[in-house]
Design a protein that fits this description.
The complex is a heterodimer.
Chain A lengths: L8 H75 L4 H14 L5 E6 L25 E6 L2 E6 L8 H11 L3 E2 L3 E3 L6 E12 L2 E11 H9 L8 E5 L5 E3 L11 H13 L3 E7 L4 E10 L8 E8 H4 L1 H48 L14 H43 L10 E8 L7 E7 L4 E9 L4 H20 L3 H19 L3 E9 L4 E7 L5 E4 L4 E4 L18 E4 L5 E5 L1 H4 L10 H11 L5 H16 L8 E8 L1
Antiparallel strand pairs in A: 1-2, 1-7, 2-3, 4-6, 5-6, 6-7, 8-9, 8-12, 10-11, 11-12, 13-22, 14-15, 15-16, 16-17, 17-20, 18-19, 18-21, 21-22
Helix pairs in contact in A: 1-2, 1-7, 7-8, 9-10
Chain B lengths: L2 E6 L2 E6 L3 E2 L4 H13 L4 E5 L5 E2 L1 H16 L3 E5 L3 H9 L7 E3 L2 H9 L10
Parallel strand pairs in B: 2-4, 3-5, 4-6, 6-7
Antiparallel strand pairs in B: 1-2
Helix pairs in contact in B: 1-2
The chains are: A alpha+beta, B alpha/beta.
Chain lengths: ~650, ~120
Amino acid sequence: MITDAFNSLRTKIVVAVVSVVVLGFIATIYTISHKATDMQKTLALQYAEASAKENADGISDTLQGALTVSRTVADALEGMKIQGVANRDVANAVLRRILEKKMRLLGIWAVWEPNAFDGRDREYIRAPGSDATGRYLPYWSRRGGRISLELLRGIDRPGLEQYYFAVRRSGKELLTEPYFDRSTGKPVRIISLIVPIRVSNRFIGAAGVDLPVSLLQDKVTGLKPYGSGYTTLISNAGQRISGNATIRSDQDDLQLRQKEQQAVKDGQLLSEYAYNPVLGTNTYRIFVPIQVGHTGTPWALAMTVPMNRVLAGVDTLRNLTLLIGFISITFLLVIIAIVLNEIVNKPLRTAMDIARRLADGNLNTRIEVKSRDEMGQLLLSMREMAEKITQMKRVETDLTVTYTQIAIARRIQESLFPAEPPKVQGVVLAGRCVPAAQVGGDYFDYFQRSENSVDIFISDVSGHGIGSALLMAEARSILKASAYLTNSASEIFSRLNASLYDDLDHAEQFITMFYAKYDARSRALAYASAGHNPPMLLRAAAHQCFPLDAEGMILGIKREIHFEEKQVRLEKGDIVFFYTDGVVEAVNPAGEQYGTMRLQEFLQQHTETCPAQMLEASLAELRQFCQCETFSDDVTIVIMKVD
Amino acid sequence: MKIRLEESDGYTIMQILESRVDASNSATLKSSLTGLFTEGARKVIVDLSQVVFLDSSGLGALISGLKHAAISESVLKLAGPQPPVRQLLELTRLSQVFDIYPNLDQAIASFAANSQERPYVA
């Protein structure tokens, strides 16, 4: 038989092992990935938060610094006013000097209410830093590295007026939204930090400094967490200052935007996960509030961390693990396949090959046993099996020969029994031997001396089978020879015993026999017995049974035995029933023996039938009694009836 | 076949603990008896009191025992045969060759008295 690759033992084992390994492997990778993701996320978030806070602080410092300058200017001008030494030239010089020192500032300016600074607006009409009405509106600006005094005009700065009025109204410091300054033609995006100037609780003007938005922009441009991440500065009103010009709004979700903007306005720390349509990945966003002085308009630094980049390391780790796992499993598979092939497949194939050859009847197959493991045991068992089969075949052959020989013996024995009873005037005979085995030890025969006289004998060699059959054949020969030589039944027995004694003694067997001589003219039946079951004489007249017994021991026990010869006169209708012990010792399923009593009853019920019918009836009755078709002992019956 | 062997005071009692002695178990009886004599037993009593049925093969076993006893100049006695067995022994006239006692005690006593007297006279 050829097993295909998919059904082979090896494939099954490999599949089982690999399944387990793969399952374990998947579990391991899942766990590692999961843990690594968590760790990596935590690390990334910690980094993002720290970085965002640090940079927010930096920006806060810058703005705070600018505010401080603005406060200083306000304080200086306020001081002049209070001390009554307000002088536009001095003030201009002070502002100029401050701007010269504060290199990062784009401009320093002041706005005074009409006639509020020195009460001399009329004198300063169109003077440097004063407008057509003489109102003091100095604006020192840095243009191309040169510092010049301009006139601060609301028209140049859309929005400034609003901021100014906001400060005037609230009396508080103000951080403006980014807005444009067009005073020099080319618009510059700036923010201003404005501080109110108050005297005696009355608002009289404001001082301000300008910062270029680009200064703040530079600070966030380089902040690109994980490469593709970015950082944005968000003003209180939601303007975005970013190094990435394309990102005006990176959040499509309106609700989320509102939430973010609210957090900025409220000056709250916010962190969230959100899908980022610009980056096309999930992001982690952290909003760090930036408070400047008492402005009450906090800004925020928003850092966006791309999760795909954060977890790229985890993906790499997972892919590496997968690769190593795949290589390991492949290696394992190859090793298992090789090992199984060596320790299971090869010996198994050998065993299969041997089994096949044995199955084909080639019992001389040499079976080498090399290993002591289960395979070795299997081969050892197969070797024993082959030996046993060889042995059994030999026994079978022997048995066949024996059966053949027994069949021959049976045919020979059957030929030794009389084919049919002799025709003797005045008497009707019938006889049958039913051997228990193929051949038996029972025997009966007739010896017709004349047309009016016949000898009947019946015998039983102890045991049954070939040995008994052989002794029976020997006894028959001697008996036939003796019958020719003498007329006397007892004389025949004496000769028989003498001749057979040695053989019987040697074989440890014995023979029982009954011999009867009937003379039809005188109706005399002379008989002798060698320990045989006494035949039943059924007297027709009396309708009674009488056993016929005579003194005489079974043959084969003693070398010399005296046999008594008796005689009885028969009448018409009398029946003599000769039998062997197989008849009376027949046992029914209940364990009871047939016995002589049942035999007598049977005979009394069949007085009218002829011997042949009686024979059939008695055998039928015995079978009925035993509830079986074959008897456990040889059964022999001879019946004679006086006619 | 179940057999109980009891040895005492120079004789051996073999008690047959079966109700039937036939072709199925007579071989064991035969080899056991033969074995006793080849092992040197001089006086053996076979207690048949439990045996209800004995067939020709059982007889054969006893005869074999008797012959081996004769060869080794030993004695084999039968004790306590039940009526069917006794009838068979009488029918075959084997009662003439076996020493048969109605019970075990008498068989044992026969050894003590060194008596040749037999309770059943043919």
